[in-house]
Design goal:
249 residues, alpha/beta, two-stranded parallel sheet, 9 strands, 39% helix, globular
Length: 249
């Protein structure tokens, strides 16, 4: 897919990874609309939307499609974090995180795919969701977040299988530790940032631009669908039973 002139929508595009995706899409020549809880002044169009509210998402996507005359690219980056011991995890907190990260992503994916299926002269488009390596790791205090991201990865695979016949490709990027406003919450954990940087194969915490480059690249790969690409600097390669650690201080 050529991004020059492409009609794109980014959820969560006002900050972090989403904002980096907006900037990179615009550099590539795409027209970009953002759905977020706050306005995104740099976007070509911006709608204040909570992706956990289905009716609001349906109306906002319809508005963007009407303005652009169709939809070619959708990046689903809206998400929230959360931390709680499992025995203290409330259903209210579970619903808050899963409602945005999985249910909200589902509604956005469905509505964007519906729009792409109506593109003329031929249906089709590219959808990339932002999941997380937490979806296939087992970190403590993050059961609801991990479950939401694991569910999103499977949603991507299932959607890709079904929507391929309509020319709609669906993939995901799974970031690791990335320096975004959400990651700032870990600053209260002594030494956390330094520890994860040491454990990354590439030796540092990622940036929003690092992840956005992977997301935008997936938009352009016409023969790739149903894939989950880890853009984590190799932090998910860390093993607690690595024998080499016995020789290191």
């Amino acid at each position: 897919m050529e991004l020059q002139g492409a009609r794109a929508l980014v959820t969560g595009g006002a900050q972090g990874i989403g904002a980096a995706c907006v900037a990179q899409l615009q550099v590539a020549g795409a027209h970009v609309a953002v759905l977020d809880l706050v306005t995104a002044p740099s976007a070509d169009a911006s709608r204040v939307v909570d992706v956990a509210e289905e009716a609001a998402v349906v109306a906002a996507v319809s508005s963007v499609v009407q303005r652009f005359g169709g939809l070619d690219v959708a990046i689903l980056s809206a998400g929230v974090g959360g931390s709680a011991p499992f025995l203290d995890l409330t259903t209210q907190e579970w619903d808050r995180v899963v409602g945005v990260n999985l249910r909200g992503a589902f509604v956005c994916l469905r509505e964007c795919a519906r729009a792409m299926a109506k593109n003329t002269p031929a249906p089709g488009g590219a959808i990339v969701a932002v999941t997380s390596i937490s979806g296939f790791l087992s970190d403590r205090l993050m059961a609801h977040y991990a479950a939401s991201k694991a569910g999103l990865a499977q949603l991507v695979r299932s959607a890709a299988r079904e929507l391929g016949a309509l020319g709609v490709r669906v993939n995901a990027v799974a970031p690791g530790t990335t320096d975004t406003p959400m990651f700032d919450a870990t600053d209260r954990l002594p030494g956390y940032r330094e520890r994860v940087a040491r454990r990354a194969a590439l030796g540092r915490v990622g940036t929003a631009d690092d992840v956005a480059r992977a997301v935008v690249a997936l938009c352009t790969l016409d023969w790739v669908t149903g894939q989950i690409v880890a853009a984590d600097g190799g932090v998910s390669l860390h093993s607690p039973i690595d024998p080499q650690e016995s020789f290191e201080t």
